[in-house]
Amino acid sequence: MSKLLKFIKYAFNSHPIVSNALVYGTLYVGAEFSQQTVTRKLLAKTPVPYDTPTIGRYAIFGTTVQGPLLTVWYRWLDKKFVGTSAKVVVRKMLLDQFFMTPQILVIFYVAMSIMEKKQDLFEECQHKFIPTFKTSCMFWLPAQCLNFSVIPSTFRVIYVGTCSFAWVNILCWIKRQDC
Region 146-156: what's the mean pLDDT? Predict the structure, then answer.
């Protein structure tokens, strides 16, 4: 087990973008898969097959966009605002929630619309951005308080990815709602 932990530590220290991309992509797929298991298998009167193209879109988005983006973002945030004092934690939380999150949500909805080949790439974002952002604030502000005050920077994206497992389930549910 110690060899595995050493390898994981080595991978995240030596190749943080690739390591976090793989972890984040896996968690995104896991969240969408669990969401589909509940909605298509457990709650459906008649079980419906998994929507593998949608799972694939979440894999692409989580791996190629979210993991790398958040790795670079948290690296910058940790260098710019060093420490775990209340003032530093609040600054990081506010920047993360009110500067980065709106951009991530727009990227998410537009990227999904592109992959879904929708005619109007911005329609879903226009309808769902505000409710998604409000829900995000309720979920992520407490999660990020813990992140910025307790979690070591090396494991920040993993922690956020783990929280994202729950968050992406919420996001999947919001995305499935009619515009």
Answer: 85
